[in-house]
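USER:
Try writing one entry.

ASSISTANT:
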Amino acid sequence: MESVERRFRCRRIVAGGGEGEAIVSPEAMCFYLCDPETGTVIEKGHPLQGRSIAGKILVLKSGKGSSVVQVDGFYQLSVKGTLPKAIIVADTEPVLVSSSVVVDEPMVDRMEVDPFEAIADGDWVRVDADREEIVVRKSS
């Protein structure tokens, strides 16, 4: 069976891009509650608890936490090389955006469809923030 790629428009927040396996969180996330060594979410009760975001395309509801906590979490992940390859965010908020800017983490929002309907865990996703495009290939 041939895989089908779907293309979606989005809005660039932070330039760049990446591609890889999607990891999806319909809930907000605090990056300070990720283990910087592994990128594993350690927040108790979070849908991604125990899973690593490192090297993935993170589809995220939004960020949560104070600016100091969020920026420090992003910075620690950046230093250890365990950030996602790119982030697709549903609800943009200033702390998440400023954290991404500080570490130059590619980020987009305003996907032309609901990202939680178009992308599932394990799908292959390419984010090109510069071209304001997301390509999704469903997992088998």
Notes: The chain has one domain: 5-137. The chain has a mean pLDDT of 94.
